[in-house]
């Protein structure tokens, strides 16, 4: 800003030396100096102002007497650039017209005059007139397009547009040429996108959207059609004046095809087509046919599907379904041809078949046979044809069913005959049965016969009678033509015995087995013709073995034949299992051979065993040839069961099982040892002895097992691990002193370990109690003596609970008890003595087990009389230096004291008296005093003083002690700075207590408040600050710090819960996106900064564009743009584009801006408007500033 002022009316009697200019921000309270040097002029240009802020100014004059009073402030003035009316709008043009309207559009002016454009004014005038008429409201319109209405038809008009800002209306921009208001006719034109000119592919179940812009005057009629047929009901068509959209939701393979768009108006017709492929599984194959049918197979063929789903058919899936079932089963999953032969079908079964085509998108629709297909073919010829009877004019024939009916029921049999003199076959009859009589024959004529079977599929080959038949009467005795008199058949198979014979007239046939007549049943059937008799037994079993007899009887005679039948089957079970020998690790078994060997020799036996507590059988041997076996490797004492199976070439018999058998020796385990006792007990071992058991079980004792247990436990532990005890005594080492133990013992022979003996009484592991030591006289008066002594070195495994003090007068007195109550201390004052008499003293210890020790060594002769000695303290040399103790250890200070009479002992620390507490114990005797501090901590460091005092005087000595411990907590608070969503900085102070050692490092840990576990961040921080990274955005954390010295980790200092969040967010969206320069290939896009940068400076901008007919936004710039404008290139001429802008900071991308208006990429067709009128806004002696 440039400031001017007038000189002061009064210069104070001295010439004005200069001026001082001051300013103050509207948001501030302090005046700041603007000029750094003395100002002599009355005009000043103030710089360094913040744009958008309001300031007030004042001026002070200065002479040789000093600085005068300040002038009145100027009032607040906003720091901003000077404002001008905007320039003319850019590129005005007519976009549409009719008989009464004209539509005009334009672009924002290149210069907005320093203030935002508020609107635009559109004016018109007829060519013949001079005056311009405003078409828009007085305030203008905000859009960059406008339609002028209510014009005269066929009138000629000129138009111009002016921009408006806060400074007023800018210069106008004229629309080139004159505009005649008449209707425009334009043939339909379709702007088909390049993507639609290619094949449009869309996946099944997706949405097909065909967007096609068009133009035409008048508005054309829009029609969509599909070449392959009518449009689906799912098709939705949207039509506007400029575009049409065909939308089909959830497309399928049937929507594939060529879609045609037709536009028609009075100016013409225009059509385009779009090829659409729906990527789906294929449709059903075409023309499925059954080509060939046999008794167990069907041949299918088909044509490829009409719709392949947009992908090549890779293979086909062929499936079948029985008529009585509902589900199809797969026959082939990878059939590469259009035909297939399906084998392994059930003869006579009814089947449906279907085929499905497969492409890379999946399995298509099925094509199914409309009717069930029966799997069958023409039958085989009938079986053997025989002559049943011959008379003078007839022949009776019989035949067997065909071996295969072709999969379809036999409908009838065709009987044909041929005479010897005539070669032509003549139909005799069609009959359903297996027997026929042909009448009306000539006597003595020779005839040939043949039989054919007929089913639903067709007629079989004929079966000829073996020899020609001469028609006449004849008789003969039955003759049996038996080829073999023995038959063998495998169990389960059918037994068929066919016995041919000759007889006339036809005989009566009977069958019996082992003398019992056979009757026809469901399994046994007979088939007798005039020349054979056949017996069939289905599903034979071993009971069918035996001798079969056939008997033939007619009027001439009787004939019989015997046939031996053997059924080949698995053998019967072996005989009962006998246990021959039982031992601890093996059992011998034997058994009898099976009564039925299955018609062939027994090849081997399979022997199995199992433990009776489990159900699983294990094979002992599968190749036993004899009827006995020795089963080895058994577990002693385990109960077993065995089973045996016989095996021949046809299989294995049923198993026979044995009774349960225990694998054990034939003698018993020994009895329990007797007289078990602890012969000797000490604190380190016990000697246990016992006697042999009363019974050795029939086998010599090979050793003993000794077990022990704590009296309070229930678990017995072996003392002789890995070896047997050969003797009847054992020294048990490793006992724990004072614990009570019980013992038990068992004997072992070859049969095993016998029962345990009765346990001993609990015995404590203790040594015998020793006598007290170091009996000393500490004080003597004329009526009393004070004694002290030491505890026994060995208390016998039980705590010493008291002492007994005894005395006697010398020389011949007897020992008398001095204390009549339990004495627990190791000192005692004996009073009531006689002056000048000599006494001898001794002490006896007693432990909690009630054991009395031997008497201690006597004191010797002591004369009772008074004695005064000054107190004295004696400390070990180690206490003269600094005593250092580790935390947790015991601090012990021992001092020897003396004095007569016995002095009073007291302890203090740092001048404060010490009292006995849980951790502090003070023990004093006549000659010693001990201070004991257990579980030392840092606070136990200091100076300890012991003081002794009696009537002769006082004496004190001090000991300095230092406790080495872990450090205390770090000094707080634990400050958290520089917090973001991913990191922060922690700061703390060293601990006030270092534990007697230098702080080596710090451990930093973190914990999410939603969890309970701490995670290490750093474990070797040397400074009292660190940076924590890898935080999770939005999570709440607690941090803690622990100091570490050479003795361990100190207590932790914790922070307050803190949430990991950034101090900034993504910026707001940019505003006022507009296009300022347009050509056929480029556009210049401008915008304004976002209202908020989110707390972090804007690092760049990302610009996206979208075609009018497109759906997808495409990024314009590959790198972030730092300026507020960018040039978009490589545009398609004639296409309309819209743009949007993102701002970016360290937090990420902002929301997108509001897109700008659609703008067509085309070169301008008129000259640019004139620049705005220049204005002088400031000047100096040598230059001017213009804008």
From TrEMBL:
Residue ranges annotated for the Ig-like domain, each copy included: 176-277, 462-566, 871-958
Species the sequence originates in: Salvelinus namaycush
Keywords per UniProt: Immunoglobulin domain, Repeat
Coiled-coil region: none
Taxonomic classification: Eukaryota, Metazoa, Chordata, Craniata, Vertebrata
Domain of life: Eukaryota
InterPro entries, per database record: FN3_dom (IPR003961), FN3_sf (IPR036116), Ig-like_dom (IPR007110), Ig-like_dom_sf (IPR036179), Ig-like_fold (IPR013783), Ig_I-set (IPR013098), Ig_sub (IPR003599), Ig_sub2 (IPR003598)
Protein name: Titin-like
Domain Fibronectin type-III per the UniProt entry, residue ranges: 1-82, 88-184, 284-378, 381-473, 573-666, 672-768, 771-867, 969-1064, 1069-1164
């Amino acid at each position: 800003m440039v400031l001017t002022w007038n000189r002061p009316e009064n210069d104070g009697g001295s010439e004005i030396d200069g001026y001082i200019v001051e300013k103050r921000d509207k948001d501030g309270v302090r005046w700041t100096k603007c000029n750094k040097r003395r100002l002599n002029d009355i005009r000043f240009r103030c710089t360094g102002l913040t744009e958008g802020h309001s300031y007030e100014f004042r001026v002070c004059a200065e002479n040789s007497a000093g600085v005068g009073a300040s002038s009145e402030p100027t009032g607040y003035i906003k720091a901003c650039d000077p404002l001008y009316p905007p320039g003319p709008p850019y590129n005005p043009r007519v976009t549409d017209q009719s008989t009464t309207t004209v539509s005009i559009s334009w672009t924002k002016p290149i210069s907005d005059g320093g203030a935002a454009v508020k609107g635009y004014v559109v004016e018109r005038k007829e060519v013949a007139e001079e005056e311009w008429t405003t078409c828009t409201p007085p305030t203008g319109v905000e859009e960059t397009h406008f339609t002028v209405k209510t014009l005269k038809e066929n009138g000629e008009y000129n138009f111009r547009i002016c921009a408006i800002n806060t400074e007023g209306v800018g210069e106008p921009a004229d629309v080139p040429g004159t505009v005649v208001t008449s209707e425009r006719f334009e043939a339909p034109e379709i702007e088909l996108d390049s993507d639609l000119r290619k094949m449009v592919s869309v996946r099944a179940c997706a949405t097909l959207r065909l967007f096609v812009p068009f133009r035409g005057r008048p508005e054309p009629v829009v029609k969509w059609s599909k070449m392959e047929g009518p449009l689906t009901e799912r098709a939705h068509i949207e039509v506007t004046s400029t575009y049409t959209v065909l939308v089909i939701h959830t497309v399928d393979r049937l929507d594939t095809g060529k879609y045609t768009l037709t536009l028609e108006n009075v100016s013409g017709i225009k059509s385009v087509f779009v090829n659409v492929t729906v990527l789906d599984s294929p449709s059903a194959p075409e023309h499925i046919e059954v080509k060939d049918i046999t008794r167990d197979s069907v041949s299918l063929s088909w044509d490829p599907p009409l719709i392949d789903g947009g992908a090549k058919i890779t293979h086909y899936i062929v499936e079948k379904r029985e008529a009585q079932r509902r589900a199809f089963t797969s026959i082939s999953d990878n059939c590469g041809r259009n035909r297939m032969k399906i084998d392994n079908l059930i003869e006579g079964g009814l089947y449906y078949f279907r085929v499905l085509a497969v492409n890379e998108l999946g399995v298509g629709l099925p094509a199914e046979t409309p009717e069930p297909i029966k799997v069958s073919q023409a039958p085989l010829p009938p079986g053997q044809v025989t002559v049943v009877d011959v008379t003078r004019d007839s022949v009776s024939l019989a035949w067997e069913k065909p071996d295969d009916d072709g999969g379809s029921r036999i409908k009838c049999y065709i009987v044909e005959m041929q005479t010897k003199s005539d070669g032509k076959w003549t139909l005799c009859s069609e009959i359903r049965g297996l027997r026929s009589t042909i009448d009306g024959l000539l006597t003595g004529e020779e005839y040939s016969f043949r039989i054919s079977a007929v089913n639903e599929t067709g007629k079989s080959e004929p079966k000829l009678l073996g020899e020609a038949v001469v028609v006449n009467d004849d008789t003969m005795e039955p003759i049996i033509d038996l080829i073999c008199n023995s038959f063998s058949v495998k169990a389960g198979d059918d037994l068929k015995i066919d016995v041919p014979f000759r007889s006339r007239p036809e005989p009566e046939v009977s069958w019996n087995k082992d003398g019992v007549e056979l009757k026809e049943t469901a399994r046994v059937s007979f088939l007798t013709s005039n020349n054979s008799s056949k017996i069939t037994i289905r599903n034979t079993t071993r009971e069918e073995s035996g001798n079969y007899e056939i008997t033939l009887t007619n009027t001439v005679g009787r004939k019989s034949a015997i046939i031996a039948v053997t059924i080949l089957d698995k053998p019967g079970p072996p005989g009962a299992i006998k246990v021959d020998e039982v031992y601890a690790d093996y059992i011998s078994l034997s058994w009898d051979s099976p009564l039925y060997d299955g018609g062939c020799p027994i090849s081997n036996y399979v022997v199995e065993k199992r433990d009776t507590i489990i159900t699983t059988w294990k094979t002992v041997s599968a190749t036993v040839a004899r009827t006995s076996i020795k089963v080895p490797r058994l577990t002693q004492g385990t109960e077993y069961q065995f089973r045996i199976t016989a095996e021949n070439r046809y299989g294995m018999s049923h198993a026979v099982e044995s009774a349960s058998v225990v694998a054990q020796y034939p003698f018993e385990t020994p009895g329990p040892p007797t007289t078990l006792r602890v012969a000797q007990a000490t604190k380190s071992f016990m000697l246990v002895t016992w006697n042999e058991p009363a019974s050795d079980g029939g086998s010599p004792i090979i050793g003993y097992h000794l077990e022990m247990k704590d009296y309070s436990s229930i678990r017995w532990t072996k003392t002789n691990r890995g070896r047997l005890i050969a003797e009847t005594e054992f020294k048990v080492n490793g006992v724990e002193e004072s614990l009570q133990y019980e013992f038990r013992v068992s004997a072992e022979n070859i049969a095993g370990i016998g029962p345990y003996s009765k346990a001993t009484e609990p015995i404590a592991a203790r040594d015998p109690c020793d006598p007290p030591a170091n009996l000393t006289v500490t004080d003597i008066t004329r009526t009393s003596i004070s004694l002290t002594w030491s505890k026994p070195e060995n208390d016998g495994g039980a705590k010493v609970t008291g002492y007994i003090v005894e005395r006697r007068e010398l020389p011949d007195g007897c020992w008398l008890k001095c204390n009549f109550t339990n004495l627990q201390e190791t000192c005692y004052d004996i009073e009531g003595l006689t002056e000048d008499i000599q006494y001898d003293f001794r002490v006896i210890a007693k432990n909690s087990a009630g054991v009395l020790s031997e008497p201690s060594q006597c004191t010797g002769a002591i004369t009772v009389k008074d004695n005064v000695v000054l107190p004295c303290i004696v400390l070990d040399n180690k206490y003269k230096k600094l005593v250092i103790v580790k935390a947790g250890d015991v601090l012990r200070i021992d001092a020897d004291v003396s004095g007569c009479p016995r002095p009073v002992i007291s302890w203090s620390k740092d001048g404060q008296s010490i009292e006995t507490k849980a951790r502090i114990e003070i023990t004093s005797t006549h000659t010693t005093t001990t201070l004991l501090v257990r579980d030392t901590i840092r606070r136990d460091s200091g100076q300890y003083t012991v003081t002794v005092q009696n009537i002769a005087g006082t004496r004190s000595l001090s000991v300095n002690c230092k406790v080495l411990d872990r450090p205390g907590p770090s000094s707080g608070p634990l400050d958290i700075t520089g917090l973001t969503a991913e990191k922060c900085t922690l700061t703390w102070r060293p601990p006030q207590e270092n534990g007697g050692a230098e702080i080596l490092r710090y451990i930093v840990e973190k914990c999410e408040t939603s969890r309970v576990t701490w995670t290490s961040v750093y474990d070797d921080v040397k400074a009292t600050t660190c940076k924590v990274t890898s935080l999770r955005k939005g999570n709440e954390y607690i941090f803690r710090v622990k100091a570490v010295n050479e003795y361990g980790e100190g207590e932790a200092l914790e922070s307050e819960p803190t949430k990991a969040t950034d101090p900034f967010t993504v910026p707001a969206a940019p505003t006022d996106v507009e296009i300022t320069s347009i050509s056929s290939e480029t556009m210049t896009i401008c915008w304004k900064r976002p209202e908020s940068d989110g707390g972090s400076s804007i690092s760049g901008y990302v610009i996206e564009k979208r075609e009018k007919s497109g759906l997808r936004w495409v990024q314009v710039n590959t790198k972030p743009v730092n300026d507020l404008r960018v040039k978009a290139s490589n545009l398609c001429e004639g296409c309309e584009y819209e743009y949007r802008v993102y701002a970016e900071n360290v937090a990420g991308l902002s929301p997108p801006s509001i897109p700008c208006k659609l703008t067509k990429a085309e070169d301008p067709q008129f000259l640019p408007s004139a620049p705005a009128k220049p204005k002088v806004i400031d000047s100096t002696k040598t230059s001017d500033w213009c804008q």
